[in-house]
Design goal:
The complex is a heterodimer of chains A (326) and B (297). Helix content of chain A is 48%, strand content 15%. By secondary structure, chain A is an alpha/beta fold. Chain A folds into 2 domains: 45 residues; 264 residues, 2-enoyl-CoA Hydratase, Chain A, domain 1 (Alpha-Beta Complex), CATH 3.90.226. In chain A, strands 1, 2, 3, 4, 5, 6, 7 and 8 form an 8-stranded mixed β-sheet that branches. Classes of the chains: A alpha/beta (326), B alpha/beta (297). The complex binds zinc ion (2 copies). The site of one zinc ion has 3 residues of chain A, from α14.
């Protein structure tokens, strides 16, 4: 996926064993020595190590996994889950924003609209997708596609993965604030099922613009936050080095958001994280989306809109505060 | 990357308190002239020397907008305090205590009912002097409450934004207020009632990217800062100096985001005129001319 393999700090031991397995296997090819026993031993050791490294992850470690460049992105989900996908372009006002993926396709035989941010996997694609940071035209494209969905009674599936909306001169000139506000409003106006899945980074306003949904799902190691841990640290701690502390304080993990009643479900990732097994991740996400979609399709058009608005009104009102650690 | 502007910084507190304390004189942050508070009160805190609009404290703003300065404050529901048990160098609960003491207000919003230009309406106004006017659950509750009043009483909703963005210390729950307030003002609009958004210095981040930008009509106070990202964040991202007048009210009007830029001295009259124009043909105003004409016909 990425040109140079990213190794997270707490994954180092895993990588060491993986390298060892590779070396031993290579040796075996060139000699008659039976190394099955050694390989078995290493394989068991590897599984144990992955399990160990991936239990009790800290919020900061989850931030790192959520940002892992090898993690499946929006287009991977589209490729795996959507048939007959027709990408659509443009906001009909100014431009097409490549960051904001959008199109129509078939999901389990149902015509759907798909929207989501793509971050890119290598330098070239990262530049193409502006590192997953959409501009106003991206959020206006999202609105246009939600209108289309509403008109043709097609459920909307959003894959959320952005560090945030793009902060630049052109963004401000074209009204980034208005574009995000209107995108949130559009989410609240349509009469079709809207399911948002935070697959990596749920970065503040840029994320909620397409995540004001009937059902909000989060992958186990994704995060969703009002501000990046670095940004928060530099404002409140006056030092970006305190990002780790900010990540703890912000309560930005899927587990925290479930406790806070902001999301509906945590989609478990394969052991070792989504970046270790894309196919297994797709299967789990597919199962969850399909289950929620079937439930939502029982509701009428006005009920769907009402549910979404009531859900957001109630948010934060039924928290069990004893479960929240200071 | 974040969209929270650099305004939600505690160091602002000192200048904010000065304004509240009604000191004998103030220094104009623009021209540097020393100005008597007594004189400033007459101009609603517009510098008589350079016409700079100083920050106008919440109560004065409400007094300025409502007819004869008369209004009824609405009690707001109290959301759970410090939902995340947030602590940086200070506890969030301690910060709240300090701001409550300094401002005499529970949080960064007040909601009030009254008339503007003879039209009954509800105004929800934010307060920069309370933690940079940042939007957490309390501000969200205030906007929701104001919207409910508007719909119930069939009267227009007016918001006065004065905020650097989301309240970080409430984490994801502050982000959710963007959707809550968007839903609330949408409810007003879907009921055929006007929602007028007034933007003052500053209106950025989570406030500008939610209810503030969803008005039927947008009025901005002369020279005020309006934007999604704070200027500092943008400068850091693009590593360039920002052009003159960037993200100012006039810039926003030029770029199609704001209808009217007004001098503070004209704001009340402009608002009154707009409310009267919007309400005179609708069914919501039973005494309106249009209904009367219909009855006569
Ligand atoms: Zn409807
Ligand atoms: Zn001056």
């Amino acid at each position: 996926m990425s040109e140079t393999k990213t190794v997270l700090d707490f994954e180092k031991k895993i990588i060491e064993i993986e390298e060892r397995i590779k070396t031993v296997s290579a040796l075996a090819k060139d000699s008659d020595v039976n190394i099955d026993k050694e390989l078995n031993r290493l394989q068991l050791k590897l599984e144990k190590q992955i399990k160990m490294s991936y239990t009790n992850l800290s919020p900061w470690q989850r931030v790192q996994i959520a940002r892992h460049p090898g993690r499946p992105q929006c287009l991977d989900y589209v490729k795996a889950l959507i048939e007959d996908f027709v990408p659509l372009c443009g906001d009909r006002v100014f431009a097409d924003d490549p960051t904001m993926i959008g199109g129509i396709g078939r999901y389990h035989g149902i015509s759907v609209v798909v929207i989501g941010q793509e971050k890119g996997t290598d330098l070239e694609t990262r530049v193409k997708y502006n590192f997953g940071m959409a501009k106003p035209e991206g959020y206006r494209k999202a609105q246009r596609l939600m209108d289309l969905a509403d008109k043709f009674n097609m459920p909307v599936i959003c894959f959320v993965d952005t560090d945030g909306a793009y902060p630049g001169i052109e963004s401000e000139a074209r009204g980034q604030a208005e574009a995000i506000a209107s995108s949130i409003q559009k989410c609240l106006q349509i009469h079709v099922p809207l399911i948002s899945v935070v697959i990596g980074m749920g970065g503040s306003g840029g994320a909620i613009a397409i995540a004001t949904a009937n059902r909000i799902l989060m992958l186990e190691n994704s995060i969703y936050s009002v501000i990046s841990p670095e940004g928060c640290a530099s404002i409140l701690w006056r030092s970006a080095d305190k990002a780790k502390d900010a990540a703890e304080a912000l309560k930005l993990t899927a587990q925290d958001l479930k406790t806070l009643g902001v999301i509906d479900e945590i989609v478990t990732e394969p052991i070792g994280g989504a970046h270790r097994d894309t196919m297994a991740t797709m299967e789990k996400v597919d199962e969850a989306i399909y289950r929620h979609l079937q439930e939502l399709m029982q509701l009428g058009r006005d009920e769907l809109k009402k549910q979404r608005n009531e859900k957001i009104y109630e948010m934060g009102h039924h928290i069990n505060f004893e479960e929240i650690k200071g | 990357m974040n969209w929270l502007s650099d305004f939600v910084r505690p160091k602002i507190k000192k200048t904010a308190q000065k304004e509240i304390a009604d000191d004998l004189w103030l220094k104009c942050p623009h021209c540097g002239k020393l100005l008597f508070t007594k004189e400033l009160k007459k101009t609603w805190y517009v510098c008589p020397e350079c016409d700079h609009h100083l920050r106008l404290y919440l109560n004065k703003r409400l007094k300025m907008l409502f007819d004869n300065g008369v209004y009824t404050e609405v009690a707001l529901p109290q959301p759970p305090e410090d939902p995340l048990k947030f602590k940086d160098s200070k506890r969030y609960t301690d910060r709240l205590k300090a701001y409550r003491k300094a401002t005499g207000n529970e949080d960064a919003i007040k909601v009030a009912k009254g008339t503007v230009g003879g039209v009954k309406c509800v105004i929800a106004a934010l307060d920069f002097s309370f933690m940079g006017g940042s939007m957490g659950m309390a501000v969200g509750e205030g906007i929701v409450k104001a919207a409910e009043i508007a719909v119930k009483s069939k009267i227009p909703l007016i918001t006065v934004s004065n905020s650097g963005g989301a309240r970080m210390q409430e984490g994801i729950l502050s982000l959710m207020q963007m959707a809550r307030t968007a839903s609330a003002v949408n409810y007003v609009k879907e009921n055929g009632l006007p929602f007028i958004s007034i933007m003052t210095d500053p209106t950025t981040g989570g406030v500008s990217a939610s209810f503030a930008m969803l008005g039927d009509i947008h009025i901005a106070e002369k020279g005020c800062l309006i934007g999604f990202a704070g200027p500092r964040v943008i400068e850091q991202t693009i590593r360039e100096k920002l052009p003159d007048g960037f993200q100012r009210a006039e810039y926003l009007r030029e770029h199609g985001m704001v209808d009217i830029v007004v001098h503070r001295s004209e704001m009340k009259n402009k608002l009154a005129m707009i409310l009267n124009l919007l309400m005179s043909n609708t069914d919501n105003n039973s005494e309106s001319k249009a209904t009367k004409t219909k009855k006569q016909a």
